[in-house]
Amino acid sequence: MIRWMSAGESHGEALVGIIDGVPKGVVLSTQKLADELARRRSGHGRGARQKFEQDRVRILGGVRHGVTIGSPVAIEIANSEWPKWRVVMSSDPVDPKDLLIDAGTGDEREVARNRPLTRPRPGHADLAGMMKFDHEDARPVLERASARETATRVALGLVARQFLRQVAGIEIVSHVVAAGSQTADIPVPLPQDADRLHASPVRTLDEDAQARFIAAIDHAKKSGDTIGGVVEVAAYGVPVGLGSYTQWDERLDAALAAALMSIQSAKSVEIGHDQVDQPGSTAHDEIVVEDEPRRLSNRAGGIEGGMSNGEPILARVGFKPISTVPRARSTIDLATGQQAPALHQRSDASQIVPAAVICESMVALTLANEILKMFGTGSVERIRAAIEAYNGRVSERLNP
Questions:
Q1: How far apart are CA 171 and CA 190, in angstroms?
Q2: For the chain, which terminus, N or C, has the lower number of CB atoms within 10 Å?
Q3: C-alpha 59 chain-centroid distance
Q4: 170, 375 in Cβ contact below 8 A?
């Protein structure tokens, strides 16, 4: 099975991700990781911080000569802004006087980073985190709760994507289907559309929707506001039978929903489409036999009874607007008990484009785990052979 976790803070020295259970033989390099992390940094609506928060990646273990060796893979993503934060975010004790001295420029924002943050932001983890861990300062909470953590998900997700490609030819692609109130009504993209989607500043193949998405994001930015949206992710080439109906916690749709809902700002997940508002006579995907058995539709999103059914897996994820808005919301100052404007941190006008990339990573990590549970571990070659043999048996049963 795949196990993974991350560590590190948004403005700490580095983020670190470790993924365990990766078989021997997965092709991986720092350049592939850098390219994948660049996708996460792209998209219209990203703020100025993307110019500063560069992703400098290193593989610390589990890979030799560009191939995984079967041991845990450790990846470090260094923070290029660390020199600004080395005292504020120091792991070792520091003299309180040094915190103010290190502010340097006298800029109000620079000085503020060295003082306790006592005005929690509505919509963030600040207030609940301060209560849960008994913090007087929101800094420890917001540093870890930040979506900057998703850089490790994308890095570890690439390991899973490479594995899925090599053992089963599985490809994962995503697009934006809504930005704020603006929507796109186009078919689910195919793997061969990936380059065109990446070239779009708002990750859509619909030119009309692209213009409307950009306008909506620009309007929000000009108004001192933020907008959310909806992402659709599709996985092609998934074998029949991943997941199980036998226990609640073995269901594939449950695993995918949990993984996708764990992304910062995610508020909803829908597997498939057009089922909840349809009568049973039209909601389900009929099977017809022509030259070979095939489905007439894919409203189930490739999952029935908690298991993959051989169709592309489809999931839509709704994201709320980023909670940090230039027009500060009202909150409580925990130092005084009085109402006050919430603190403001550097943020984006919209996160919907990078959210799509992060969704791909979470789907990849989930499917990689399910593949290993069903087909065993060890090496890419062994797992590929097991999948090929299984797919052969499935084909024989469907085409007697």
A1: 9
A2: C
A3: 20
A4: no
CA distance 206 to 157: 27
Query: For the chain, how many residues are written?
Result: 400
Written as one string, the DSSP assignment of 253-280 is: HHHHHHHHHTSTTEEEEEESSS-TTS-H
Range of the domain at 22: 3-82+147-398
> Residue 228: inside a domain, yes or no?
yes
Cα–Cα distance, 177 to 205 (Å, whole number): 10
Q: For position 370, which CATH number holds?
A: 3.60.150.10
Number of domains present in the structure of the chain: 1
How many angstroms from the chain centroid is the CA of residue 46?
16
Local structure of 225: helix, strand or coil: coil
In a domain, 194, yes or no: yes
Instruction: Kindly tell me the burial class for residue 97, based on how many C-beta atoms sit within 10 Å of its own C-beta (0-12, 13-18, 19 or more).
Output: exposed
Q: Does 108 fall in a domain?
A: no
> Which residues, in sequence order, are CB contacts of 10 under 8 Å at separation 6+?
142, 143, 144, 146, 148, 149
Q: Residue 338 belongs to what H/E stretch?
A: strand 338-341
Burial of 75 (0-12, 13-18, 19+ CB in 10 A): buried
Which residues are 303's β-sheet partners? 308
Sign of CA dihedral 201, 202, 204, 208: negative
Helix (H, G, I), strand (E, B) or coil at 284: coil
Q: Give the separation between CA 301 and CA 309, rounded to whole angstroms.
A: 9
Say how far apart CA 372 and CA 388 lie, in whole Å. 14
Tell me the pLDDT of the chain (400 aa) as tens digits.
Answer: 899 999 999 999 999 999 999 999 999 999 999 999 999 998 887 665 555 556 799 999 999 999 999 999 999 999 988 888 888 898 998 776 666 555 444 444 455 567 789 999 999 999 999 999 999 999 999 999 999 999 999 999 999 999 999 999 999 999 999 999 999 989 999 999 999 999 999 999 999 999 999 999 999 999 889 999 999 999 999 999 999 999 999 999 999 999 999 999 999 999 999 888 888 888 898 999 988 899 999 999 999 999 999 999 999 999 999 988 877 789 999 999 999 999 776 678 899 999 999 999 999 999 999 999 999 999 999 999 999 999 999 999 998 8
Is residue 224 assigned to a domain? Answer: yes
Asked if 21 and 3 touch (Cβ cutoff 8 Å), the reply is yes
